[in-house]
Amino acid sequence: MLRKVVSLATGLGLLFGAAGSAQPQSRGTENRIQRVEAGLLLPVAVKGQPVTRLTLADRIRFYKVPAVSIAVIDRFSLAWARAYGVRQAGNAEPVNVKSLFQAASISKPLVALATLHLVDRGKFQLDEDVNKQLISWKIPENEFTRQKPVTLRQLLDHSGGLTNHEVGTYGPDQRIPTLLESLDGKPPARTRPVYVDYLPGSRSRYSGGGYSVLQQLLIDVSGQTFPEFMTETVLKPLGMTHSNYQQPLSKELAPVAAIGHRYTGEALKGGWVALPEMAAGGLWSTPSDLALFVIELEKSAAGKSNKVLSKELTREMLTTQIASMGLGVTIEGEGRSLHFSHGGSNPGYRCFMVGYPQTGQGAVVMTNSDLGHDLVREIIRSIANEYRWADYHPVVLEIVSMDPKLFENFVGEYEYAPGRSITVTIENGRLFAQETREFKSEILPESPTRFVSTLYNTEFRFVLDKEGHATELIVHWADDEQEYKAKRKS
Q1: Rounded to an integer, what distance in angstroms lies between the CA atom of residue 290 and that of residue 23?
Q2: Are 288 and 78 in contact (CB under 8 A)?
Q3: Which residues in the chain land under pLDDT 70?
Q4: What structural domains does the chain harbor?
Q5: Three-state SS for 307?
Q6: Which of 12, 33, 230, 389 registers the highest number of CB atoms within 10 A of its CB?
């Protein structure tokens, strides 16, 4: 249905008229929107070759993403917002800029802001033992916590050693555990218990479990339900009137929520999952609302607006603590290129948020599909190019010349995990690779054995036997520090 609707529009940006746009735009802004829509960029550009620019309409069709919603920030204000596509695949009902999406892990930065607000008010200290303030539940004591207790700072920057990278998600026919059941790993929770399994503060490891502990801490200290606390502390002061931490989502709001879709393209049963770990991934929001959060952090760091947090603690939040983590956000760059960001990934939804405190720029992109991650990144690169950001530009790849006959040595299926493999094929003298859950992508040679995917910026290194035939494939995805070894099956 989306294909038919798009073909009737003169441009994707005009697809929904007033419904798809936050407000009437000036001609200059409209021109910029159209350039963003026509200038999506792949993660890799080849040195000496023209940069490929793609249209948003084509990429929505390519990735089979039913809907995407975008907000762009410029000069410390919301420059524009647009929504594209439909609420559910196969349905003609369009989304608009007020349609709700699951923000997933973008929930965490807002929770960090709320927590630091209580630090500002003297309710907490960043470096004290959080078990002193926890009432309803305690971090289990063990050999690691006896050496070094977990602090609030460590919960915020993911260095507390808490387990559970991901949190539990539950469909409409499943009982949702309480937060305490989730923390203890007791049925009906489908996650293991949350506990410390390495020395707190020694390294950073992303932990939804740590933010679940933080959620319980905020409930114990505030005496409120978590959605009430977050509404009063962050959402209401920032004017985020289309955001909430309701889990499950109320029947009144369900009609304005974009329905999540799996890798298969099928809509999630019941429309979306629910989860008791609201701090880790329970926020429902819109790009325009999340843009207000980004703008507030940018202004607060400059002392120009401190609706929730002082200038000093905002700057602490946006300062690298360990690895690339600030307090609740990832921190990269320095000076004018300093930026904070966070992604989100719940079943059926993919989203991303970024802000530049020095320049007042940024963007939020949200989709309702498991296949939305790479579309989001292509949109971000287009925005970065149009608004001259310091980052998020394609990597320039210098390739070597190879005889296409040598590609025969690489063809086959390489398994790196049960049910997960990478298939390498040749088409018209070009080499392609496709992971089980990804789209087929051409891979280009940086050397006779090292190739890079043009669609994902994934690195593939072939291990050859004495005859020059590949026996193994070493894979390094762009967003993953780990390398994966895949054995050739055929």
Answers
A1: 17
A2: yes
A3: 1-24, 490
A4: 102-395 (3.40.710.10), 399-488 (2.40.128.50)
A5: coil
A6: 230
